[in-house]
Design goal:
The complex is a heterodimer of chains A (148) and B (110).
Chain A lengths: L20 H29 L9 H8 L2 H29 L3 H27 L21
Chain B lengths: L1 H25 L5 H10 L3 H29 L7 H28 L2
The chains are: A mainly alpha (148), B mainly alpha (110).
Chain lengths: 148, 110
């Protein structure tokens, strides 16, 4: 009769010195969430409630806003905080419902790639914006574009 | 549980609008004509109703998000989570009562 071999208990795990990504993700959702409440309600008020509401939005309206550094900072914060908040939420949902490891990996990559590309695109748009592009008809441009 | 379900559904809906919204705003870098052509579709009645739904979703997600933060960090947050859910609903109704008439007048003219 063979004696049962009981493996020696594993030694205590050495505390890993790595950052806890999930913890920081959890903290980020709450920290960015509080800021986003202010940023998004402000954005909705300026664009949908004040003045003519949605009817006032056109190229000249956007150019007028971005002539003020205040709205450049506001919209940059909105872009980064909101997209990362949304992307991290979609990452959580992917982990919850995508059981198939291959599908899960594909979805995580699609999420990461689209987020990186949109952050780059949005940031470039805000900081390379030209309120008075050459060749555009003057009635589409903000009033501060000098007439030729 | 229903607050959790609604938080997920509104979160996903807002996320996909955000993707489209970054792309449509990026058209200001293409030309004034391209941007105006797309943004004018936002002023149609159907999209106007969509914007009302979007603001309703954002309003719930924002207020319920603040409730989640209070549950996590407020010492008696878990005790009052149910009461705070009804506070979220009440504030959401007040928010929409202020927003919807104004927005619908902009869209439908009045």
């Amino acid at each position: 009769m063979t004696t049962e071999q009981v493996e020696a208990p594993r030694s205590a795990r050495v505390a890993r010195r790595s950052t806890n990504f999930e913890k920081w993700g959890w903290i980020y959702m709450r920290a960015s969430g509080v800021v986003l409440v202010v940023l998004i309600f402000g954005h909705l008020f300026v664009n949908l409630v004040a003045g003519e509401g949605v009817n006032a939005i056109d190229f000249a309206f956007v150019a007028g806003k971005w002539a003020n550094p205040f709205f450049i900072v506001w919209d940059t914060l909105l872009l980064w905080l909101a997209l990362l908040h949304g992307a991290n939420g979609m990452r959580t949902i992917t982990n919850d419902y995508a059981y198939n490891p291959t599908i899960r990996r594909v979805l995580h990559w699609a999420n990461g790639l689209s987020t990186a590309m949109l952050l780059l695109l949005g940031t470039l748009v805000i900081y390379t914006f030209d309120p008075c592009p050459a060749g555009a008809s003057a009635d589409l441009l903000p009033s501060f574009c000098a007439a030729p | 549980m229903w607050s959790w379900v609604l938080h997920r559904i509104t979160g996903v809906a807002i996320y996909f609008f955000l993707l489209v919204h970054i792309l449509d705003t990026a058209l200001v870098r293409v030309s004034p004509e391209a941007y105006n052509a797309v943004i004018n579709t936002y002023k149609t009645p159907i999209m106007g109703l969509g914007e009302a739904g979007l603001v309703a979703a954002i309003g719930f997600h924002a207020l319920n998000g603040l409730r989640i933060i209070l549950i996590d960090f407020w010492s008696v947050g878990t005790k009052y989570h149910r009461l705070m859910f009804w506070a979220v609903i009440a504030l959401w109704v007040v928010l929409l009562a202020g927003f919807l008439p104004r927005h619908l007048m902009h869209v439908f003219g009045g």
